[in-house]
Structures are given as C-alpha cells and as structure tokens.
Amino acid sequence: MEQPFRLTSEVRDNCLVITTAGYVNNVGGEAIAAEFNRHFEKGIRHVVINLGQSRVVNSVGMSFLIEIIERLEESGGKLVFSDLDPAVEKMLSIMGLFQYAGKQKTVADALVSLAGAGKADG
Amino acid sequence: MTDAVTLKMTLPKIPDIELVALEGLDRLARHLGIAEEKIGEARIIVTEAVVNALEHSGENNPSVRLEFTMTTNDLSIFVRDYGKGFEPASVEDPDIKAKLHTKNKRGWGLNLMKSMSDDFRIESNRNGTKITIKKLLR
Amino acid sequence: MSRRTETGTLAGHSGTPIEALQEAFRVLSGAGSLKEESARFRSVIGDYFRGDEVRLLRRTTGEWESMGGGPEGTAGALPSPAAGVAGASALEGESVRIVQRLADGSDVGVVLLRGGSGNPYTESDLITLRLFLTVFENAYREMIARRNEKDLIFSLNHRVLQLNSLIDTGIEVSKITGSAPPHHLALERAASLTNASKGVLRVTRGGRTEEEGWFPHGGAPEGGAPGSGGISTGFDFGGETYTFQLFDKESRNGIIPFDETDQLLLDALSKQVHASLENLYLHQEALEKQKIEQDIAVAASIQQRILPKSLPVIEGYDIAGVNIPSKSVGGDYYDCIPLPDGRFALVIADVAGKGVPAALLVSSFHAYLTAYLEADLPLVELAKRLNRVISRASTEDKFITGFFALLTPSSGFLETLSAGHNPVFLRRTDGTLQELILGGIPLGMLDMDFPYQSETLTLGKGERLLLYTDGIPEATDPRQRLYDEDFPLRDFVSGKVPDRAGTFIEELIADVKKYTGSAPQNDDITALYLMKL
Lengths: 122, 138, 533
What we know:
The structure holds three protein chains of three kinds. Chain A is α/β, with parallel strands linked by helices. Chain A has a single domain (6-121), classed as Transcription Regulator spoIIAA (2-Layer Sandwich), CATH 3.30.750.24. In chain A, 46% of the residues lie in helices and 25% in strands. Chain A has helices at 26-41, 59-74, 86-94, 107-121, and strands at 6-12, 15-21, 46-53, 78-82, 102-104. The mean pLDDT of chain A is 92. By secondary structure, chain B is an alpha+beta fold. Chain B has one domain: Heat Shock Protein 90 (2-Layer Sandwich). Chain B contains four helices and five strands. Chain B has helices at residues 18-32, 40-55, 96-99, 109-116; strands spanning 5-12, 63-70, 74-81, 119-125, 128-136. In chain B, helix 1 packs antiparallel against helix 2 (40-55) and helix 2 (40-55) runs antiparallel to helix 4. The two termini of chain B are 17 Å apart. Chain C is of the alpha+beta class. Chain C folds into three domains: 17-157, Beta-Lactamase (2-Layer Sandwich); 176-220 and 228-282, GAF domain (Beta-Lactamase); 307-532, Phosphatase 2c, domain 1 (4-Layer Sandwich). The longest helix of chain C has 47 residues, at 260-306. Chains in contact: A-B, B-C. Chains A and B meet through helix 2 and helix 3 of A and helix 1, helix 2, helix 3 and helix 4 of B.
C-alpha cells in the first residue's frame, strides 16, 4: 500500500525546498501549506516542491498548493515543482497550476531556474 | 481475446480508504503483467473517484461501491455512492483563475476524472450517483 | 538391396512353365544391362525350347538390330505392334515371331526357328514365348527403375552437403522450444547454403512489420536494403506473414543470379520453419490441454466435496441452491449452514481464478468459515479474520468474493455482509429491489484489518433474497452482451415470484441458458434463493 504522508524541508540559497513522500491527501496538502507559511512569514519567496516520492496525490491535497501560489503571486515570489511523476504532472497541468508555477526535472534544476528568476526580478 | 479480471469492493468512509482501492488496482495490473507506469493516470482517476464519491455518499450509507474490470488494454471503473445525488450538468468546470483569491479551492475531482479518462459517464439521482469510466492503458 | 547377378543359366530346364517363368524373372532381373539381359534371355529361351534357334532383335527408332543369335535380315518378317499396343506376334509352323514394346519405348523382337525334324509350333508355344517376353519386359522395367534411382542419387550427390545441412537445420529448428525463434536460424542457413551475402526475414501482421531480422548483421545492412534481383519465399502462420528474402549470390566471379536449386532450398527451409512453428504451437496446445484436463478433474472433485448435498429445511422459509460448474471449473461455493443457536448462515463465494489452486483456496475458506461460524463471531469480525487467513494462505492475485447472511428464522432478522461480492438482491413484497452491498474488500485481497461493515434488515412474508456469483451476470449471449445485473437480471428477480424457491432457481437458470443460447458457459453458475413463506 501507498506509504503515509511525510514531509521534509530545507532552505537552500534562500529557497525553500519541500520534499514529500507518500500519499498527498488533504492532510498532506495542508502540511505542505503550513510548512510554506512558516517560511513565508520569515520572508522566503522562492519555493521548490519535490513530489518525486509521492506517487499518489489527490486534488484536495493539491488545492492547498493553490493557496501557496496565491500568496507568492501577491508577493512576487515563485513556486517550482520538481521530480513529477508523469500522471501527477498531467493532473497539475489540467488544474492549470503551471500557468503560475514552474516545473523542472530535478531540485537542482528548479533551484537554477529560481536563481535566474531572482536575478531577472532585480 | 484478452481475459478480463474483475475486482469489486465496498469501501467505508474512513480516511485514506482510497488507498485500498489503489492497492486493488495495482494487484490487477500485476496479475495481468501491466507495467506500473501504464496505470499512473488510472490511479489518479480512481483516487479522485473514491474521494469524490465518499464525499457525496450521504448519512444513511456512508460507503462507496467500486468495480474494476481490467484487461491488458483498458480499465473500466464503476463507482457508485448512495448519497442524495446532484445535477451533473450544473457543475461548472473549475478554473484556477477563479479559485485564486477565493475561499473554496476544491472541487476538481469531476473535472479531473473527465479530463483524464477516455470515456466518462455519470448518472445521478436522489438514490445516489453512478460513474462509469473507461481508461485505455498505454 | 540389389539382386546378385546369377552366373549360371537355366541349364537343363525341367518343371512347369510357371516355375520356368519365375526362375526366368529371377535370372533376368539380376542383369545389369540390356545386353546382359538379352544374353540371359536367349539362354533361358534356348533351354526351354531345346534345339530351337533363338534370335533377339531390338529397334529404338528405325532399323532392327541384332541382340544376338542371328543376322538382322531375319527381322524383316517381324510383325509391327499397332499404335498403342505393346506387342504383336506371328505363328508360322516352323517359326514364331514376337515383338514386345519395352518401357523405354523401344521394341524387342524374338524369332524362334525350329529345324526340319521337329513338330510345328503350336498356339501354346506362342503363348509361352509371349509370357517369357513379358517377363523380359518386366525385368527390363525394373532394371531401368533401379538405374534411375541411382542416377537420381548421383545427380543429387553434389547437393549432399547442402541437403545434410538442411536436415540439420530441420532438426535444430524442431528442437527449439520457444527461446530462440527458428526463423532466425533458418535465414542464416539459407543464406550460407545459397551463398547469398544478404538476407532478411520479415514478420508482418496486417501489412505492418512486427519483426525484421537481417543476415549477417541482425540489423538492416549499411546503405539500406538491397534492390530487386533476390529470391524470396514465405508462409502465413498465426495471422502473421513470414517472408524470407535472399540477395546477392556470391561466386568466384562476383555476384551471380540465384538458380532454381537455391529457390528450392529456400522454399524447403521456409516449409521446415512453418512446420516447426506449427508443431511448437500444437505441442504447447496439447500439453496445456492435457494439464487443464487433469486440473479440471481434481478441481471438480475438491469442489464437489464441499458443496452441499442438500440444503437444510428452515421452518417458515423455502430455500434452494444450484451450482453448474463450467468446463474449466472455477471456485464457486454456496451453502446454508444451521448454527447451534437456531440461526442459519447463508453463504455464497467465488474465488478469482480457476482450477486446482482456486478449488484448494475455496476448500480452506470452507474450513475457516465453518470454524468461525461455530465460534459465533460477529459477521464483521468473521470477515476480518477470513480476510487475514486467506491473505496469508494465498498468492496476492488470489482472493475470494463472498456474501454472508445470518438469518434468525423466527423474526426474519437478517445481518448481511458483502466481501467484494456481487450485489445481493432483496425483493420486497411491492416488487422493489434492494441491493445489499455493504461489507468491504474481497477476502484475501489485502493483509490488513479491513474495517468491514454489515447491514441489518428484516425479511417480511413473501420477501425474497437472491445470492449469485459472476457466472450469471457475466453470462453472454452470442453477441457478447452480458446477462447484466441492471438488465435483464434485475427485471427477472423483480418479476418472477413463484411459490417455490426451487422453481425460481430452475426458471432463472432456464432464462440464463435461453439468453446465452449457443454461447459457451465461461464460469461456474451458482445461486442461492431464500423466500419467507
């Protein structure tokens, strides 16, 4: 069976990197949002969410990510997803999340893309 | 030509019960020798279908009935709940633009099921809702 | 095998003409050439017609030529066979003249002359000589046949190596049991036997190439496929077309055209591959069939042991059940078990899978079920435990769907649980149907404490319960349409209300059979019907 949800995070180059594992359900989504909010309050505006270890996600869990996008939109920040399973990527695409968030193959690529975005921002 | 395998279950409304459905799906796929990556989208459809059905399953019978019929080429998913039903046509397709800056960010299930499946039928009345989905496995 | 050449002749003939003719055949057919046979014939005839002069002549196209015994001149008087006739003869008292057409189209003539002192020839002498000449003809025919055979072998001699190789290929090809495809080996052999420098094998289905193998590389040659000018052959098997093509026959003088023998060799190899593919298929099919038949017998006996011989009588109720095993014997089970406290357990179950493993699993299910029922466990606990033990007792793709109902006859109180089984129909007195579906996952699907649920209801007078397995809703008509739960099964259950449970079962089975018509029964058909009187 799918593993229960777990979350780890670290801040690299002023970027928050959230890595999940297991099923991202509503509780998982809420946990991601809470972790983001904690760092957002401290001024973090660049976020990478690595879903590589989450084979299953549901739309309720994902809808919490819209909240993250919303806050970053308002503050000139940016969210990038990494390590997406093709089916999860299709799901996020149908939900329209990539209109506001980026996607990269790896966390490293995501960090590079955010560094570029940072420079462009000023 | 290909043999169909069927799996039926009734799932109670308890947290993460959809994972049991996914486990059943995985087992059917393994039984038929279907590669894991071919059922990735089916897994999302099933997750959404079960979560959605349980959410609408109502007080009297908070459970959903689920049937999978799988061949090496496709998967049929039948989900039924015993809630009070709704008018499918009145459900608007969600839009991320509208979801931003509003309180309700949920309500993606039906749209995801429709978008990701190859055939989608819904029948809803006051005795509940039946959804039949066909997904090609490729 | 060849006959030994007799050195002697029929010196001092005695005995009947039949014996003489048999002896003549033995002597003549031992000859190695026409000349030798002619000499022996003269000697045989000379012995038989002692004292007479024997002349033998032969013509292939024009003039008669002496084969011994006298000058050609005597031939002038030989009769000529009419067109389409093998012989002619003339009897003139002191001479007999006979002509016989031989198998090679030439004529042989015999002139028999008697000196003045003897009696004139009779009709009997003519017949005897004709018989001897027929023997000559037969012996000659056999000689030619022997020679042709030798010639044939001789002419094939230079292909012996290739033929041997072909036979080897045949053996290797037929030995292969599926690991390396025989057609690749055949292509390689065909190319090396014919000195082709390139070859390709294509397997196509409906015009689409499914497989392509090149000789000598495996992949397509550099510079693309060769142009025309090669030879090709092929066959159809299992909906696929196999085509062998050879290009660029090499020789000391460069590339030369393929000859007829090359084509024959390629055809022969292709035929061998075709035959070996067919053999392989038939062999596997036969093995499978044999195994399946044994399996079915064992499974059927296991299943029969646990199915009820008869159902108990429940006061105030009528109950009937049926199990019609399919050809391949699934693992269906049903029963109505009286419990110590006066209740009855109605059970129906269906194992995913067929054959012995399925039957064995039902057998252990049956053992656990009866033990747990005796222990008076609540239904949800019973299901939870059955799920556990069956998970551990079976491989992950084996599970059992089941429906359990505990009936308290006095009150009509029913507690039911469906473990991933088909919905059970409860027909209320007003004709409406209620589907009993509450329960959980199939037993053995997941090794976990699954939270099974049960439901309770009360059966009123005249109300009925139908439990059934997949064999009914998955029965198909000749157009592959299901005897579906929604239609027509639902309507049947709702519409049929006979007085006896047994009648309902009989009519249901008849309706399913009528629906399926000539379509084969794919799965066990099992049903259990309870009605409150």
